[in-house]
Amino acid sequence: MSKLKIAVVGGGNIGSSLAFDCALRGHDVVVIEKDTISCEKSRENIVETAGYAPLFSPLAKGKTAEMILQNIVWSQDLLAVSDREFVVENITENIAIKQALYANMAEFIAPDAVLASNTSCIPITKLGSFHCVPSQVIGVHFMNPVYLKPTVEVILGFNTSETIQERCLEILTILGKQAVVVKDGPGFVSNQISHLFMNEAAFTVQDGLAQPKDVDAIFKGCFGHKMGQLETADLIGIDTIVNSLDVLYQMFQDSKYRVCPLMRTMVDAGYLGRKTGKGFYTYTMAY
Q1: Catalytic, out of 27, 131, 141, 195
Q2: Which of 72, 87, 173, 174 is 20 to 30 A from 250, comparing alpha carbons?
Q3: pLDDT above 80 (res 287)
């Protein structure tokens, strides 16, 4: 198996999950974060994941945190992307912040590298316009937890080159992922649909129709979903869901994407889901 050189820019919830999955498979990973506190938090997340991942994944059996961490380094310098063939942007769902990052990365990223965005809802063509070579930018939507999700959504921007698309699909194959390729648009396929589900599930709780566990029990028991809508929201992060819905509302100007007020209140209260220990549910251990 080819050993890839991967940069994960943004080591939050999904970024740390991606770094863990890539390192678990033996690849060379650098996680780039804004400060030492964020780097340490990312490391703690990965160590914690290594502790329970063997319960769910055969690939993780026999792999200790020490073995996985040997394949990961942390950096606060964007220069660390310069020797990477696969660069995945995972920072917060904010257009202005992403624009600044892409402009800053431009002088360091290798011309033949795949620059993939793991954005939730911002169109890839929009993100490509922030980069000096728009043809280098492609969307790769990894689902959380990455090590348990064999399928990824790949989004082609208007300017994404065939060469980048082909190389991206090769890399994903090496990473053990099955790619489903779709066209560009706000939220793509997965989040145009899934965020409506989670938002409306939150409304049913806000309106007193049911408790979170009962809402999720219906989706798991009646529709065969592995996780309920509110469990999923907690896993992704309530703040990320709110930010993504705001992007969808801005892009579509459609009231169906208005954010449930309960979720805005939860964000203000710091109830962000698994990453803070409390969301729609209370947690003692991350998933």
Answers
A1: 141
A2: 87
A3: no
